[in-house]
Amino acid sequence: FGGNLSFGSEYTYTLRTDDYLSFSETYIPTSYSKIREHNIAAFLEYQYALPFGQFTAGLRYEHDEFKYYEDHTYRPDQSRTYDNFFPNASFGTQIGNVQLQASYSAKTNRPSYFQLSNNRVYLNRFTHRTGNPTLKPAITHDITLMGAWRFFQAMISFQQKRDPILQWSNPDASDHSVAVITHQNFDKLPTLNAMIGAAPTIGCWSPTFTIGVTKQWFDITYDNQKINMSDPMLTASFNNLITLPWGLMFGADFSFQGKGNMENYYFSENRYICNVSLQKSFLKDALTVEMRGNDLFHKQISEGTMYMNRLWAAAKNFSDSREFVLTLRYKFNMTPS
Predict the structure, then answer these.
(1) 288 with 281: CB under 8 angstroms?
(2) Are the C-beta atoms of residues 261 and 231 closer than 8 Å to each other?
(3) What are the phi and psi torsion angles at 75 (to 5°)?
(4) pLDDT under 70 in the chain at which residues?
(5) Of 43, 118, 36, 40, nearest to 82 (Cα)?
(6) What single-letter DSSP state applies at residue 64?
(7) Residue 323, CA atoms < 13 Å, CB-side half-sphere
(8) Fewer Cβ within 10 Å of end Cβ, the chain: N or C?
């Protein structure tokens, strides 16, 4: 019908076994689990060029079936079969120098086998870790608007995630002083992402600047109290590439991540990263030498708190991220094609 239709299918079979051998049955019992999964999908997409833009629509069907075995016994109550349809559509157009695109998509995020495993792992006498075989897949509905004008770009996206999977904790059934960390489905997690950027070229200087914000609407119950986890998070980057005489290229990249919430985690410190580089090519661009300094001010630090029912975990993560890197690249048998 004057457009372009594409279609296909895929099939995946997976077998996973987990054996947890405990030599001290007092704390954690020995356990065995096995998962057999069959996943078959069929998909099609249709593209059609309109006088005022390009229209695309598609549909994906997935049949997923996995069987769960615990201690060599089939567990029908923890086995699952899913039949899902995931549509997508987009429309793009150009009005003068302005390019616009609107899109919608539905996607699934199935729990990992580690998250589904019923094996229990001993961390310490107050904390154990286990999976949750009753987890449901998370479904994300995404609506995105994008625009570009000259060297400016902008994007706004709203995501509604149904049955999101978050790390959570529950008291042990036999000993309430022990917290069992697992994963759990929640009702919904709406999130808004917005970004604006610019990438001009000013003589020998090519800067790229982006600034964005992520905002979620999410409440959890911690220690029988309702906690609002909806603080927005600001991110920004400022990358620079300068062409110097004698074939030298100088780069300076800056990035920033502000405080805010992401799922049931609160980032309590701002994060700054600064990288610089100097590059030169030799032998008609066959040999490239690059010197790079990463995280010059040693600010690649992540600090925050995760709230999980009756348990909260505070962590400050930092590593030897400040480093000097020398890279040599040589291209053999270069061709213009």
Answers:
(1) yes
(2) yes
(3) -115, 95
(4) 25-26, 336-337
(5) 40
(6) E
(7) 7
(8) C
